[in-house]
Write a structure and sequence with these properties.
Helix content: 40-55%
InterPro entries: DUF4272
CATH topology of the largest domain: TATA-Binding Protein
Mean pLDDT: 90
Number of helices: 15
Order of helices and strands: EHEEEHHEHEEEHHHHHHHHHHH
Distance between the termini: 33 Å
Protein name: DUF4272 domain-containing protein
Pfam families: DUF4272
Organism: Paenibacillus profundus
Low-confidence stretches: none
Strand content: 5-15%
Structural class: alpha+beta
């Protein structure tokens, strides 16, 4: 292999040049006047290796860039794969791409050279497209190939906050909320950065209606119960009969998303899906808190009280009772917790990217599922449940 391409989503493309210069600081580096090309020359006593990085952005590439992204989206969209969740998230990543860095070497890219390319990719949160059609994450792991194979259980799209949140207006309430969260996290020994934006302001925030929250909480609890039972190697027919009995009790047939219905009707469910859906207890716990059934959300260092979540539904017994006893928390309460989990998640992602332990006793899997639930609650990016993003 003598060429590959990095794809990124970021507003400030000067960071691409910075990442290349930082990674190859010990080599001879030449940058074009327009900043669209960087040449790295590795001279040794009897040899010379040249690697050229050519940068095309959404702005400089115009229609050519748009066509390239459309072609890539279509290429991966048609792939048949058992890793459907990974595929859907990769498509989300592709739809948000803003720059491509074509890399061409005059000699075969060996392991040492590719490791340097991965360093650049990690610094700018890029995905790597290989000539074979394989897409890798910035750690070199296979996200998806044309055969539908993947080395990942999950894939998290990365889009820089300056691009995603450009539409969010800073408000006094939002700034004050951000400061309170940063002070709390600092006391807890959790890393913070000041330039992470505020979340949506009180006046602009839209909280899901009570009926939607109630139905989603019921569906999440049921899907988690079903997945958890299957993961413990219970009999499929018995688990399905049990969950259908509860669904009928709550009139919940219409509460499930397309992905959830596919899982419920799958006669040979994948274990990865079982585990992922079992994590929905954490999302359910957030919604039970939002509905007043959980008194407070503790620090996200441990998994939620699964039995208590199940008991809420068991004790209610039917939809009307569950609905009538629920009291949706105020917008201010929900936004306070949303801001907090947003900054917890940034800390987890930042440490993971830099190959450091997750800080302060946080459980990053609990954090990301809470983040998912809160972003759905506040209608983040107006996404339905199957496509909620947890951008940091």
């Amino acid at each position: 292999m003598q060429h590959c391409t990095l794809y990124v989503s970021m507003k400030d493309d000067s960071k691409i040049i910075e990442a290349i210069l930082d990674t190859f600081g010990d080599k001879q580096v030449q940058t074009s006047e327009d900043g669209h090309q960087v040449m790295v020359i590795d001279k040794k006593l009897f040899s010379k290796r040249t690697t050229t990085f050519s940068i095309m952005t959404k702005e400089t590439g115009g229609e050519s860039f748009a066509n390239m992204i459309r072609g890539m989206y279509g290429y991966y969209d048609q792939i048949d794969t058992p890793h459907q969740t990974v595929k859907e998230k990769l498509l989300l990543q592709i739809s948000a791409l803003t720059a491509a860095i074509g890399i061409v070497a005059d000699k075969e890219i060996d392991n040492k050279s590719f490791a340097k390319i991965l360093e650049v990719a990690a610094k700018i949160h890029a995905v790597i497209f290989l000539p074979t059609g394989d897409m890798l994450d910035n750690q070199g792991r296979l996200v998806l190939n044309v055969e539908g194979e993947s080395e990942l259980d999950d894939f998290r799209p990365t889009v820089t906050v300056d691009l995603i949140d450009a539409h969010i207006k800073a408000t006094p309430e939002g700034e004050a909320r951000k400061r309170r969260t940063m002070e709390l996290l600092t006391e807890q020994g959790i890393p913070v950065i000041d330039h992470l934006p505020v979340i949506v302001g009180d006046d602009d925030a839209l909280i899901r209606p009570k009926e939607e929250i109630v139905q989603r909480a019921i569906a999440l609890c049921m899907i988690a119960m079903y997945a958890g039972g299957l993961a413990e190697e219970s009999d499929l027919a018995r688990e399905r009969e049990f969950i259908h009995m509860i669904m009928e009790q709550y009139g919940a047939e219409s509460f499930f998303t397309e992905n959830e219905r596919d899982f419920l009707t799958d006669d040979n469910p994948d274990r990865t899906d079982m585990i992922q859906f079992a994590w929905m207890y954490e999302c359910c716990w957030v919604l039970l808190w939002a509905l007043g059934y959980v008194e407070q959300l503790d620090f996200p260092g441990d998994i939620c009280d699964v039995q208590s979540a199940i008991d809420v539904l068991r004790n209610a017994g039917d939809y009307d009772t569950f609905y009538n006893n629920a009291v949706v928390r105020t917008k201010a309460e929900i936004l306070e917790q949303t801001d907090r989990i947003y900054r917890y998640d940034w800390a987890c992602v930042n440490e993971r990217i830099n190959n450091r332990p997750i800080p302060g006793g946080l459980n990053d899997e609990v954090v990301v599922e809470r983040h998912r639930a809160f972003n759905w609650l506040i209608c983040y990016m107006d996404a339905d449940w199957d496509h909620v993003r947890t951008d940091t």
